[in-house]
Automatic annotation (TrEMBL):
Reactions performed catalytically: ATP + H2O + phospholipidSide 1 = ADP + phosphate + phospholipidSide 2
PANTHER family per the UniProt record, alphabetical: PHOSPHOLIPID-TRANSPORTING ATPASE, PROBABLE PHOSPHOLIPID-TRANSPORTING ATPASE
Residue ranges of every copy of the P-type ATPase C-terminal domain listed in the record: 820-916
Alphabetical GO biological process terms: phospholipid translocation
Cofactor(s) for this UniProt protein: Mg(2+)
GO molecular function: ATP binding; ATP hydrolysis activity; ATPase-coupled intramembrane lipid transporter activity; magnesium ion binding
EC identifiers of the protein: 7.6.2.1
Transmembrane segments: 71-89, 296-319, 345-364
Highest taxon of the lineage: Eukaryota
Coiled coil: none
The protein's name: Phospholipid-transporting ATPase
Amino acid sequence: MLLHRPGKGVVVVKCMKHEQPEIRTIHVGHNVCSSITGEEVYIPHKYPHNRVVSSQYTLLTFLPKNLFSQFRRIANFYFLVVGIIQLIIDTPVTPIATILPLTFVITVTAIKQGYEDWLRHKADKEINYRNATVVEKGHLKDCRSMDIKVGDIVRVQINEKFPCDLVMLSSNNQDGKCYVTTANLDGETNLKTQVCIPETRKYRLDTDFEGLEAVIECEKPVADLYRFIGRLHIMQNGQKITRPLSLENILLQGARLRNTTFIYGCAVYTGQETKMGLNSKFKTTKFSHVERRMNTFLIVFIITLFLLSSIFTGLKYWYTTTFILPWYVPPGKDELTTMNVIEDFLAFTVLYYYIIPISLYVTIEIQRVVGSMFFKWDCSMYDDELDHPAQANTSDLNEELGQVEYLFADKTGTLTENTMQLRFCSINGIIYEEINDTLCEYNSSQPVSNMSEHLIEFFTVLVLCHTVRVDHKTSGDTVVSTDSIYSHSGKDYEYNASSPDEKALVEACRKYGIVFHGSRNDHMEVTFQDTMKRFKVLNILEFDSIRRCMSVIVQDETGEIHVLCKGAEIDIFEKVSSGDLQSASKHINQFAKLGLRTLAIAKKTISRIEFETLNGALLEAKSCLQRREKKVLEVCNMVESELKLLGVTAVEDKLQKDVPETIIKLRNAGIKVWVLTGDKEETAINISYSTGHFNMGMKELHLTGNVTSDDCQIAITRLCQTITLSDDGDEYVLIIDGQSLHHVLANHQPALRQLCSSCVAVLCCRMSPIQKAQVVRFVKHLAGAPVTAAIGDGANDVSMIHEAHVGIGIMGKEGRMAVTNSDYAFGKFRFLSRALLLHGHLYYIRLATVVQYSFYKNVAFITPQVFYQFFCHFSQQSAYDSFYLLFYNITCTSLPILIYGMFEQHMLQSKLLGKPAYTSQ
């Protein structure tokens, strides 16, 4: 271990291996800064290399690891044991009849797995040997990507991928910004803006870093793509300056640099510790119910084998003690000794061991691979808009698609298009609607002709309080990214936003401005644009997944400081002290009945002293490495208080094509559909009716608004009594919110099971991502252990996709996290009917037939062997020649059933899709 002592150089000492610390301390450029850390002795920590390893084997480990993996299968291990027994005892069947087929099966599987691993090695080598550039002693040095170490200062050129996770230090832009795409991480193709701290922007040459004294402190690696907590200490003019680091300061491995000539960054996470590496770990292996039952069958047949061997061993000694043995039987063979009994038992085991089909696993594996190809080749599941076919990320769960009993579906982006458009807004108690890209008063087709103070104040918040970035073309195909909507007079705008709601609101603001400027009232556009120019953004409070709101602190030309806030009404209303709250609540309920997504808009004015206090507290909270989120939340709650309510917005998210027809088909096939969404109750109910999830005439049971466990117990008891006293023909649907679900899952699961079993559909609203997974886990443990499937399109659906027996991803507009973490994926919800009712049904029928046939043919094959022992006086003679034993499973019977298992269609596609009830039979 190398130690650095100030003034004493580097010494070598020995130290014990220690665990990785909670906080990682990195000396930028490996320049030891004892003046920053205050440590007399610097002990460098050994971090993982930057080598990407997705392969499972090496040349040395392939044979033992692959054999161990294959012999974990019951059938393979069973035949291995039988082969060993045949080599030990005086076997009635030649060992070649067992060893040769087993070797063939093991070899074929090993070749397949070895080829797949070779492809992974090839892909790894391409990444690991990619050229990279690091700064070493003030000079650029070329190296391989795999040689980058934590602490290295790395230079990345335009259009290059980041070789590891870097904290951005500088770029060629004087403002310290760069633009990246993260399609390889989350599937989002839009440009994202990353920045460096102001103190390191000036380091734009490799020679500038020679005198840099800086230390980065950050948390240990976490897999969350949207989380990074750290701080940077830098010495400038003899003083130590500390700046917080967050997600906007880090450049993730796999992302690509765009529209920026170069950047410099310090490596903080390398190799498998990068966020891409942590998210690329193999998921928990899922096994289909058919495979589990097949293992049960194998155990039953093994028990049957041992039972037969025991019976015939007893019959042999009964015969030898009752009748006189022929002269050619060696002396002592008829003696009842322990060794003779064991040897005879093993001999009968070897004689009957073909009761288990040795080729079963190979047949199933080939059938599954071909079946997954059919899934990809289905032209009816090809998405023309995305220009992408359906994909099968695994072939091990093909038949599971045909056994789904419960389907859990996200709403936004799964049942809907996730294409937002502003429809209504309520401002100062007055409803406005959008008609032909113009803002009109409700029930009036005349555009607003006078931009009142309330309207300007409302739209000012919409224009300033967002994270949308505007791109426009200046010349040719050159794209310039800005943070201002009105920074360019041209009309070639392209908005990039992480939230489609935000994009819809900003686009609406621009549309209204352009329409007013072009035809109705020139003064309105000038007033609107000038209003925007009067503000200077001072601070932005970042999004929070729990708070569901954001705020921007701005200063106008008069020096006044304003807090502009936008978020879910359930959060904003709690912080409002003035404004027309009653009208806003009424209008929100009205919008919700139309199935629209709503947001509340608010603001307040603060003094300079208040701003300095809050800004200091926010900076201190963001600089903390421990419990940063909690401390930032506390400051945000202080900022977002005593607000003035300005109004609410209502955005429409249109249904996808054929969603109602698809849900009806699934219900007719016996599949219960549960919708899990984060939307408010009224909006979610309206969407359920419009999608066919709920039908008119069904009676609603509401388990919502319960704040305690006792309240939930009373509500469930009341709902169960309602069902008990109702008519037999009534159909019930259950609506439950996240707050009530929290208490019910913790304390009242049996009662909830009884309630859900009486309902034809369930709607869960106001759900968090983890609650979606909890609901899936709850249903998986219902009576009968039903097969579950979960379908979603966003990162918030990944947890329930992992939890379900079958996870299905929609290639939507919220990135590709759901797709990459799913078992199967396609572009539209309507393709689900073909996936479950056609492909899944055929997969299940085919595989079930293959498994039953494989066991049946071997039982039929071994039965004559059993009866033959009565004619050979239980002498363990074989009724078959070794040639038949050798080739019966591999060649004589495997090919016909394999062809059947790949191509059999016992029912027409039109009947399976047109009459879904057939799939449940």
